[in-house]
Every structure is written in structure tokens, then in C-alpha cells.
Specification:
By secondary structure, the chain is mostly helical. About 70% of the residues lie in helices and about 5% in strands.
Amino acid sequence: MRIATAYAYQNAIDSMTERQAKLVRNQEELSTGKKLLSAGDDPVAAAAAERTRSAQRRIELQQRMNDFATGQLQVADGVLSSVGDLLQLVREGVVQAGNGGFSAADRHQIATQLRGYREELLALANRPDGAGGFLFGGQGSTTAPFVDGASVTYQAQPGEQQVGLDATSPTVLDGRHTFMDIPSGTGTQSIFDLLDQTIAVLDDATSTGATVSSTVRTAITGLDFALDRTSTKRTEVGEALRALEARDKLAADGSLQLSTQLSKLVDVDYARAISEFQNNQTALSAAMKAYSQISKMSLFDYL
């Protein structure tokens, strides 16, 4: 009898200890909202959860890059729109200057107007990007890429700056291609050189009618090429923005799927946890009652 009583006594203690441990576990799950509290709880699930978090971090990084690129391209689109509007004003002024009835004073007035447009165009070409660089800084420039000396020169590295992981998007545009390499005859010419040459002829009181007419024709052709180049750049920017929007949607969908997957791996099922907590409470109470009864037993209970 004593052996049986000791065995029952130990069983009651073991049962209470087990139920208390389970209750502590239940309380931790309910208070943290997590069922995977350490890698030791479920090594396979813990490894899967870490892979999921790594994928989430990658998506978050791509989304930040996408947001940055979107902001840059939206600004670039606005600037290119302003460039197009300005070039159209220049073209209208040049066409007006070709009026055979204009005097030298009339042409001088138009030249002065064109000179102002040129300065505005240069300011747009040197527009900061808000991130320490310039929108048309090519591969990257911390100083204004277009320098106005005897003529305007492009001193940045041609090309485009890109950001992204699996897919990239431009954030800085190629200023040389946008403003400097405009088709002209058999070669190329910068829009600034074209303006300078046109202004010089219109500002020269000794320019003949034939010289003015030839200059105006050349300028209009060059300006049409420049307008076409600007329109092409805006189209490229628009396509890049649409691609970013599509990638953002994919990233958002992927992020949601990963969040759901991670939740299944680590988050507690409250209904299950509460049910287990209540069951363990009941079992602990029963074990404590059994222990109490066994503790009161003595040899005389069996005589």
C-alpha cells in the first residue's frame, strides 16, 4: 500500500507540474499572440518563418526603391512638360522672326525674348532632383551638369541612373541625349548652340534677309527635332511610371501573401489557445485535488 500510495503521490505531482508548464505556455502565447516563441519550439517552422521574413524585407526594400523612383520620375515628367512648353514658345518666336516685314529692332526684341527663354531652359536642364543630384545628371553628378561658358557644355557622365533589385527604373535622366545630341543636318547639335546661333543672327542689325530666312529655317528644323526628343523622353518616363505601378501592385500582393504565410507559421490561434488554457486549468485543478486527497491518506486509511 505504501508503494502504491507513493506512486499515486508522484503521479499527482508530475501531473500538476505538467499542467502548470502548459498553462505558462498558454499564457505566453495569449499575451504575445505568438505560438512560435523560440526556434526550439518548432525548428522547421522557425526556419520557414525566417525565410519568409527575409522575403518580406526584400519586398520592402524594392517598394522603397520604387517609391523613390516614382517620385523622381514624376518630377522629371513635370520638368519635361515645362521644357516642351518652353521650346514651343521659342519656336513661335523664331517663326515670328522670319517675318520679312520685321525691322532689325523687331528682330532684336525677339532675340532678347529668346535669350530669356534660353536661361529658363538652362535652369530646367539643371533642375536638382531633391536627393543631392540633378534630374538630368546622367550617371550621377553633385554639381550642375550643364555649364554655361562660351557655350553650354554637358559635364556629367552620359547615361541614366537606375535603382531596383530584380527590375530597375531610371531616377536620373541622360541630359546629353535630352538637350545636347539633337539631330542637325548630318550630325548633332545642342539646343543651346542652336539658340545661341539664332539669337546672334537676329541680334545683328547687319544680318541680311537671306541670312535671317536661312537661320530661321534651320532653327525651326532643329526645334522640331528637340520637341520630338522631349516628347520621346516623356513617353519613356510615362512607360517607366506605368511599369513601377505594375511592380508596386505585384509587390503589394506578394507582401500580403507573405504576411499570411508568416501568420500561419508564428501567430497563435486564439480560439485553440483559449480552449487549451481552459482545459489545462481544469486538468490542473483535478491534479491538485488528487494530490490533496493523497496527501491526507495514512496507513490507517488502509487498515
